[in-house]
Each structure stands twice: as C-alpha cells, then as structure tokens.
C-alpha cells in the first residue's frame, strides 16, 4: 500500500466514520446536523471529521459561524483501485476452481 492511502484507510477503519461518509454522500452537512445522527458528543464527532479530513475523504468550508462538511468522492477512487486488485485475485481463483470442478467426473 502506498503511503498516501494510509490516512484514507485509517479513516475508513472506523464504522462511525463510514456512517458519516454515507450521510455526507447525500448532502453537505454541518457538525450539528451530523451530531444529531450520532450517539456521541459534538467534540467526538469533530474528532471523527478531523480524521476524515486528514484522509482527504471530506472537505470542510466555513460559512459564517458554521462549518460545512462534504464528501470528497474523488479521494475514494485510489482506495477502490487498490481494493480492486483483490477482486481480480478472487475472480482468478474462483475461475480456476470452476474450471477444475467442471473437469471432474460426477460421482455416482
């Protein structure tokens, strides 16, 4: 794994952060709006958002007194590409298994 992906995988390792990403995929949200959906304090949500921002998975912007967070979907592409190798890995092995099983005589 290349070093630039490490912060993204660190961010994705936590279920709360994955849930936040799902919510942000629908729309931009303030910290207060995200906190309404989480069983934790605003400070805890802020820490999760910081980890997501460190992984470049979200972008934040200030508007007045509010900070809005939005999904940075483009940052997920390198993660998907990295995981895609394993999809090919399993596809190749399952194809080989299928070929082997197809050559065997059925038991009687």
TrEMBL record:
Q: Which domain of life is it from?
A: Bacteria
Do you know which InterPro entries this protein is assigned to? ArsR-like_HTH (IPR011991), HTH_ArsR_DNA-bd_dom (IPR001845)
Tell me one Pfam family matched here.
Answer: HTH_20
Q: Which residues form the HTH arsR-type domain?
A: 1-91
PANTHER family documented for this protein: SLL0088 PROTEIN, TRANSCRIPTIONAL REGULATORY PROTEIN
Q: Enumerate the NCBIfam families for this protein.
A: HTH_metalloreg
Q: What is this protein called?
A: Metalloregulator ArsR/SmtB family transcription factor
Its taxonomic placement starts with: Bacteria, Pseudomonadati, Pseudomonadota, Alphaproteobacteria, Rhodobacterales
């Amino acid at each position: 794994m290349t070093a630039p992906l490490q912060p993204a995988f660190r961010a994705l390792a936590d279920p709360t952060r994955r849930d936040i990403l799902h919510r942000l995929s629908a729309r931009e949200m303030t910290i207060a709006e995200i906190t309404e959906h989480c069983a934790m304090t605003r400070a805890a949500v802020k820490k999760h958002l910081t980890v997501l921002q460190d992984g470049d998975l979200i972008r934040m912007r200030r508007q007045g007194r509010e900070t809005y967070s939005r999904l940075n979907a483009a940052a997920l592409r390198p993660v998907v590409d990295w995981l895609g190798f394993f999809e090919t890995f399993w596809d190749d092995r399952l194809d080989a298994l299928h070929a082997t099983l197809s050559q065997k005589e059925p038991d009687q």
